[in-house]
Amino acid sequence: MESLAIITSGGDAPGMNAAIRAIVLSCHAKGIKCIGFYHGYNGLIEDECLTLTPEMVRPILQYGGTILKSARCPQMHTDDGVKNVAKTLKRHKVDSLVVIGGDGSFRGMMALQSYWSGRLIGVPATIDNDLACTDSTIGFSTAVSTATHAIDKIRDTANAFERVFIVEVMGRHSGHIAFNVGLATAAESILSFENCPSSSLEQVKLSLIEQIQTQQKNNHTSFVIVLAENLWPGGAQGLKQTLNDTANIESAVCVLGYIQRGGSPCPEDRILATELGIEAVEAAYSESGVMIGKEQGKLIRRCIIAATEQKKPVDQAIHSVYQTLT
Amino acid sequence: MESLAIITSGGDAPGMNAAIRAIVLSCHAKGIKCIGFYHGYNGLIEDECLTLTPEMVRPILQYGGTILKSARCPQMHTDDGVKNVAKTLKRHKVDSLVVIGGDGSFRGMMALQSYWSGRLIGVPATIDNDLACTDSTIGFSTAVSTATHAIDKIRDTANAFERVFIVEVMGRHSGHIAFNVGLATAAESILSFENCPSSSLEQVKLSLIEQIQTQQKNNHTSFVIVLAENLWPGGAQGLKQTLNDTANIESAVCVLGYIQRGGSPCPEDRILATELGIEAVEAAYSESGVMIGKEQGKLIRRCIIAATEQKKPVDQAIHSVYQTLT
Amino acid sequence: MESLAIITSGGDAPGMNAAIRAIVLSCHAKGIKCIGFYHGYNGLIEDECLTLTPEMVRPILQYGGTILKSARCPQMHTDDGVKNVAKTLKRHKVDSLVVIGGDGSFRGMMALQSYWSGRLIGVPATIDNDLACTDSTIGFSTAVSTATHAIDKIRDTANAFERVFIVEVMGRHSGHIAFNVGLATAAESILSFENCPSSSLEQVKLSLIEQIQTQQKNNHTSFVIVLAENLWPGGAQGLKQTLNDTANIESAVCVLGYIQRGGSPCPEDRILATELGIEAVEAAYSESGVMIGKEQGKLIRRCIIAATEQKKPVDQAIHSVYQTLT
Amino acid sequence: MESLAIITSGGDAPGMNAAIRAIVLSCHAKGIKCIGFYHGYNGLIEDECLTLTPEMVRPILQYGGTILKSARCPQMHTDDGVKNVAKTLKRHKVDSLVVIGGDGSFRGMMALQSYWSGRLIGVPATIDNDLACTDSTIGFSTAVSTATHAIDKIRDTANAFERVFIVEVMGRHSGHIAFNVGLATAAESILSFENCPSSSLEQVKLSLIEQIQTQQKNNHTSFVIVLAENLWPGGAQGLKQTLNDTANIESAVCVLGYIQRGGSPCPEDRILATELGIEAVEAAYSESGVMIGKEQGKLIRRCIIAATEQKKPVDQAIHSVYQTLT
After folding, report:
1. ipTM, 2 decimals?
2. Fewer CB within 10 Å: C terminus or N terminus of chain B?
C-alpha cells in the first residue's frame, strides 16, 4: 500500500480528529502517503485535498469537529457522483480509502465498490451510536457526557422550582443517548423508541401523567423527562402541549440540540478513535468493505453491509435498570 | 436586630446558595437568628420556613439552584397577598427581610413597605444582569460562562460544516448576556435590543444577509449569530425562516435555554454573592428599602426604587469592541 | 432479607454516592430496610449509623465523595476489631452487608466471614481500576477524565514553552490510569509498572533521554511524560533530577494528586455504579463472599478471593497502541 | 503607522491568544501590517517571525497558550541582547511593538527604549494579577476558575475523610489567586503574604493549629488550607511537616501547579484580552512606554514604570470578607 485517503462524512462527532491523527501517524510510521479530502464525499468529487503530515495532526487529538470538514453529499445518490469519486481516487492513485462516519457514509462506500477497485474501510463515528458491530461509536460517549452535564444544570432549576422539565436529546431514531443520559441524570422518565412504540403513545401519555401526578402528590420535587428526538409528535413542544391540554400539567422545555455534537472528546472517545484509526490502516492492507469495530474489548472487522443493515439495540440491561429505579 | 429572614425569589441564579450561606454565617457570627422561607414570597404567605444553621449552609457555596427553592408569586400583586406576608413576618418577629432576586422580587419589597415596618434589603441575583446600581448581578457571570462553553461546542460543528448557526441566549429584555457571550465566542453577529431596535429589524435583516453572503463569497467558514431572546419575531426559528425566505440562506438553530440558569457558580459569582450577602446583614441593622450592589469595586447601598426603575444599559465599550471586530 | 447495611470503605471514588443511591432505591422497592454505617468499618465498630431513605439519596447521584464518609480501618487487621463489627451487625439484625470499596476493603470482608454468618457482597469502587473480575471499577473513568483535562491544560503551557513536563498520576501499583491518560493526551512517553519493570529503570532512562533529544533536534515542540506514582525513585521530582543530572534536560513537574479522586462522576461511572448497586441487592438474597462486576457488557458475580488475589493487567491492546504511536 | 509587531513573553496566561487575535484583526481593519515574533524577546533577537493574517487568528480566541510561543529571555539583561532586538525591529521597519506579558516583560520594554525609538505598548497578561494600573490581568480569572474547580474536587475527598488538606496555589509573590480561590472554595484558612508576613509565621502556625483543633473538637468535617506558593518554608510539604511535628495533625498535600496556567480562557479573560488588544493598537499610534489597563470599567493607559514599580495589593474588601466568615 503506497497511498491512503481519508474523509470525514455525515454529522460530525467528537473524536473524528483523534481518528484522523491516528491514521496519519500510523501511515507515517509505515511509509504510506496519507491524503485528506475535504467535506466528505464532496471533496472527492471536486478533488479538494491535501497531503496530511504528522506535524499537522499532532495537536488535534483533543479538538472537536474535524480538520477535514464534513458534509452530506446528495450526489453520492447518483451514478455520476459515485463515478466522479472513483475518478478522483484513481487520479491520485489511492490504494485505500478510509471513511470516518455513520451509516449514510457507509452506504456511500457500498455504492463506490461498483466503480472503484481499491480497498474501502469504515470507521464508525456518530454520536447516535446506532451502528451494529461495535459496542460504541466515536463521539457517543462525549455526547452522553455533554448532555448529562447540561441536565445536571437544568436539575438545579427544576429543583429550585419543583418543576417538570422536558429535555430533548439527539439520537436520530435510536435511544442510546436518551437511555444513557436518562440513567446518568436520574431522570424520572425516559421516553424513547425502545419503550414507546408509536402505537402506544396514548398509553405512554396516560402513564406519564399518572407518574407525575403521583409524585407531585407525595412531595415537592422536580421531574425530568428525557425525550428522544423524532419520537413525540411535535417534539418536546408537542409533549408540553399534550401534558398541558390533557392534565393541566405545566412544564418547561429544553432542546439540547447541537451542543451534543461538539466539544473536546472525552478520554473514552479519544482512545476508541485512536484504536480504530490504527486498526483501519492495518486492515487497509488486505481487506475491503469492512468496518472496524470494538466489541467486548476486542477490535474486530465486520462486513460493512452487516454494520449498516441492522441497528444496534439499546442494551437490555439499561432498560431493566431504568425500570427498577422508576 | 434579633431575627433576620431570607427568601430567594423569581428566576433562580447560580450563586443564590452562596448568598444564603454568607448571610447565615454572618448572622451566626453576630448572634442573629436566621429564618429561611421557602418558595419566595409564597413561603411567607403560607408560613413555610426553617431556622438556618451554619451546618446547613457550609457545603452549599458551590451548588447551583437554591436550597430555599424559588417561585414566582402572583399573590404579591394583590393587597391580600402582601398583607399575609406582613402577618407572617410579624408572627415570627422578624426584624429584617433579605430578598435575593431580580426586579420583580424587588417590586414585591416595595409593596411590602406599606404593610410592614421591618427593614427590607435586596440582594441582586438574576442571570440577566439588567438591574441598575450594580456592575454585575449574582448569576450573570456563570450564565455567560455556560453559554460561552456551549457555543464553543457549537462552533466545532459550525466549522466542520461551514454553516450558519443561530444561537438564542437568555436575557429577557436586555442584551448583557448576548453581547458578552457574543464577544467571548467571536460571534460573527450579535443581535440584541441595543443594536437592533424593533423599528430597524428590516434594515438589520438586510445588513445581516449582506454580511453572511460576503463572508461566504470570500472563504469557507462558519458564521455564528448570537440572538437575544424576545428580540426577533418568532425567535431563532423566525430568524432562520427569514434568512431562508429572503435570501435562500440555510442555517441551524440552537436555543440554549435553561442550562444558562443552573450549574455550579463560577468564582466571580461565588465571591460577589458572598460579599453582597455579608453586606446585606450589615445594612439590615440600619437601613431599609435598599439594594446592595457593587460598583467599580466598592460595595454600595442604593434605594430599591432607583435599582428597579431604570435598566442598566450594556456597556458602550462592549458595543464598540464588537463593531471594531466585525 | 429484611435488613441490608452499606459501608463505603478505603479511598473514596467518584460514583460511590451513585452506588449508595441505587442500593437504597432498590431496597426500598423490595421493602428491605437499608442502614448506612459511617466511616467504613469504623462505623460498624463504633455503631455509627442511620437508616437510609429514598429522599436522602435522590439528589446524590451526581456528587463526588460519599455521604457515608470513608476511612481506612486498622482495627480490621485485629480479631477484636472484626468481632466488634460482627457484633454490631448482629445487634442491628443485618442480613446482608454491602461493602463499596477496593481490595483492602474486600479483605476486611473475608476476615469478617469467620465471625459473621450474614451475606457479604462487594461493589468495586476505586479510581485505580486494579481489581480483577470487572472491566472497570467505579471511579476509574472519572479519574481518567479529570487527569486528561488537567494535562490538556498543561499541554498549553508545554507547547507555549516547548518544554518537557513530567506529570505524575495516581494508580497505586498499577498503570490503568497512566496508560489511559497517556493515550488520551497524546503523551510522548508513558512510564508505568507494565512497561518499566524496576530492574530496567536504567534502560528506560537512557531510551527516554534519547527520545527527548531526538525530538528536540527535529523540531521545537513539547514533550509530556505521564508517570505512574510509586514507580520512579523519588517520584516525579526524582525523574526530573535524573534527566537533569544525566543529560542536562530541563523539565517541569506536576503531581496531579487528589484532584483525581473527587468531582462529579462522569456518566460511565454513574451508570456502572447504578448497575452494580442494583445487582448487589439482587445478589444479597442468595450469595455471599462475592463481588459484583461487569465484564464484556454483562453483570457477573465472582468470589471475592478471585477478585482480590490477582491484579487486573492493563489491556495489551493499550500497550500496543502506545507503541505504534510513539 | 504601517507596521506593528507583537510578542508574548514570560509565563504564558490563558487569553494571550485572544489578545493576539484582537490586535491582528484591529491592524487588519486599519491597514497595518502585523508581524508576530516567536518565543518572546528571543524571536526578536534571532529574527524568527511571521506576518499574521486574520485567517490565522480567527479560530484562536478560545485556546490557551500562545501561538507565538513564549519564553524567558536572559539576554534582555545585557546591552547586546537589547541592541539586537532593536536591530531586528529596525530591519523590519516596525513602527510599534506590543508586548503581551507580565512585569519582567515590561522591564524589557524599558530597556529597549534606550536603543529603539519606535512606540512600545504593554498588554498585561499574567495569571498572578500582580501588576498595578489594571484591576485584572489577562489570565487571572481563568487561573482562579481552574484552581477553584480543582479544590471543589479535593473538597469531596476532604469531606469523605474529614481530613485536613493543604492546597498550594500559584501567584509568585502576591496573594490574588490565594485569596480569591480561598473565598470561592470556602477554604477554612488562607495563608498568603498579605496576612502572613514572614516575621509572624510562628504566630500564624499557632493560630492555625488552634483553629484546626477547635473545629475538629466541634464536629467531624474537612479543613482546607489554601497556601500561596513561596510563602511557607518548604512549601506545602513544609507546612504539613510543621503541623505534624508541632501538634500531631495529619494532613494531605496538593500542589496545583501548572494546570493553573493553561486551559481555555474564561469569558472574562477573553473579553478583557480583546478590549486591551484593540486599545493597544489604538494607543500605538501616539503613545509609547505605556501599559493598557482596565480600571473600574474603563480602559486606561499608564506609564509602564508606574505599572511595574508597585505591586497591586489584594483588595482590602476580600481580606475582611475572609475574616468575617472564618
Report:
1. 0.96
2. C
Contact criterion met (CB below 8 Å) for D170 and D127: yes
In chain C, the number of structural domains is: 2
Summarize pLDDT for D81-93 with one digit per residue, the tens: 999 999 999 999 9
| Co-location of C96 and C128 in the same domain | yes
**Stretch A172-193: mean pLDDT, rounded?**
96
Residue B29 lies in a domain: yes
CA–CA gap between residue C148 and residue A274 (Å, rounded): 15
CB contact under 8 A, A325 and C22: yes
A-chain CB neighbours of B237 within 8 Å are: none
Residue D131 covered by a domain: yes
Question: Which pLDDT does position C220 carry in this prediction?
Answer: 64
Q: Is residue A318 part of a domain?
A: no
The contacts found for A215-222 with CB under 8 angstroms, 24 or more apart, are A215/A188, A219/C55, A220/A162, A220/B69, A221/A159, A221/A162, A221/C58, A222/A155, A222/A158, A222/A159, A222/A161, A222/A162, A222/A163, A222/A164, A222/A165, A222/A188
Nearest CA distance, A192 vs chain C (angstrom): 18
Domain of residue D77 covers: 3-139+265-309
B62 in any annotated domain: yes
Instruction: Give the nearest chain B residue to A221 (CA atoms).
Output: B69
Question: Domain check: are D168 and D106 in the same one?
Answer: no
The chain-wide mean pLDDT, for chain B, equals 96
Question: What DSSP state is assigned to residue D10?
Answer: S
Mean per-residue pLDDT, C107-122: 97
Candidates B103, B128, B130, B269; catalytic one: B128
Reported pTM? 0.97
Give the C-alpha distances (Å, rounded to integers) separating A193 from A233, A313, D5. 13, 10, 59
Q: Which of B49-53, B118-122, C216-220, D64-68 has the lowest mean pLDDT?
A: C216-220
Are C154 and C254 contained in the same domain?
yes
In terms of Cβ atoms closer than 10 Å to its own Cβ (0-12, 13-18, 19+), residue C54 is middle
For residue D316, pLDDT over 90 is answered with no
**Shared domain check, D235 and D163:** yes
Say yes or no for a CB contact (<8 Å) between B254 and A252: no
Q: What is the DSSP string of A96-162?
A: EEEEEE-HHHHHHHHHHTTT--SEEEEEEB-TT--BSSSS--BTHHHHHHHHHHHHHHHHHHHHHHT
The arithmetic mean of pLDDT across residues D122-147, rounded, is 97
Q: Residue D291 — φ and ψ, nearest 5°?
A: -105, 140
Statement to judge: residues C154 and C74 lie in one domain: no
Catalytic residues of A: 128
Would the CB atoms of D297 and B135 count as touching at under 8 Å?
Answer: yes
Our CA angle for A199, A203, A206, nearest 5°, is 150
Residues of D with Cβ-Cβ distance to C66 under 8 angstroms: 160
Residues D149 and D131 in one domain: no
D286 burial type by CB count under 10 A (0-12 exposed, 13-18 middle, 19+ buried) = exposed
Report the distance separating Cα D228 and Cα D193, nearest Å: 7
Closest-approach residue (CA) in chain D for B277: D321
Say if residue C219's pLDDT is above 80: no
Q: What's the pLDDT band for A220 if we cut at 50, 70, 90?
A: low
D26 CB neighbours in chain B (<8 A) are: 324-325
Q: Are residues D290 and D255 in the same domain?
A: no
Identify whether residues C159 and C245 lie together within a single domain: yes
Helix/strand/coil percent split, chain D, to 5 = 50, 20, 35
Q: What is the CATH number of the domain that holds D76?
A: 3.40.50.450
Instruction: Identify the pLDDT of residue A276.
Output: 98
Give me the residue from D12, D153, D257 closest to C254, CB to CB.
Answer: D257
Q: Quickly state the pLDDT bin for B161 (edges 50, 70, 90).
A: very high
Mean pLDDT over residues A134-144, rounded?
Answer: 98
Picking from A321, A323, A326 by the largest number of C CB atoms within 10 A of its own CB, the best residue to mutate is A321
